[in-house]
Specification:
Blueprint: H1 14-27, H2 32-42, H3 47-62, H4 68-83, H5 87-96, H6 101-111, H7 117-127, H8 138-151, H9 156-165, H10 172-179
Length: about 180
């Protein structure tokens, strides 16, 4: 069976690019960098396309449809409340999405202010249904839990505290050796 070739899309002018950008923002919250990346694929090539994207971004900011600060605040709150991620993970994710470092710091600082990281780690463990290490593979299971908690953005001190609450003997050399 032969597949039909997809019809090449026509490059969009500024008005059509604005419609496209609004549709993209309506479907999912995005950073300015993510939106520019999406528009880049559809815009006219060259300087005309760049000027059109700049105009669309400026208009979206003027209409308050696009705000990296609001994105960072909402993203941080949702990751903390829904996913139960630690502070570091959220910072890394926002940086990867192209949010400025000072915006990330402000959003994460506000949302995680006064949060008991150990309690949040326990909530993450419950959410992921992680079991307490026991039996023959206790050390291996403890290392697995430790890795998952570190990847979820919790500090090594918090991870040690949670594992010690479970009666698992951990040494800081265990983490330092894995990190290098």
């Amino acid at each position: 069976m032969a597949f039909k070739r997809a019809k090449a899309r026509e490059p969009l002018d500024e008005a059509k690019l604005m419609e496209y950008a609004v549709r993209m923002l309506a479907s999912q919250m995005r950073t300015e960098r993510e939106l520019r990346r999406l528009m880049q694929r559809r815009a006219v090539a060259g300087d005309d396309g760049s000027r059109a994207m700049d105009a669309v971004v400026a208009r979206l900011k003027e209409l308050n449809y696009l705000s990296d600060a609001r994105f960072a605040a909402d993203y941080t709150r949702l990751r903390k409340e829904g996913e139960k991620f630690g502070r570091r993970r959220v910072q890394q994710d926002l940086a990867a999405k192209g949010v400025a470092a000072e915006t990330v710091g402000a959003a994460v600082g506000t949302v995680y202010e006064g949060v008991d990281e150990t309690a949040l780690a326990r909530e993450y463990i419950a959410r992921k249904r992680m079991k307490q290490p026991a039996g023959e593979n206790r050390k291996k299971d403890a290392a697995r839990v430790m890795g998952r908690l570190l990847r979820a953005g919790f500090s090594a001190g918090t991870v040690f505290k949670v594992l010690r609450e479970w009666g698992v003997e951990v040494e800081e050399a265990d983490v330092v050796g894995d990190a290098e």
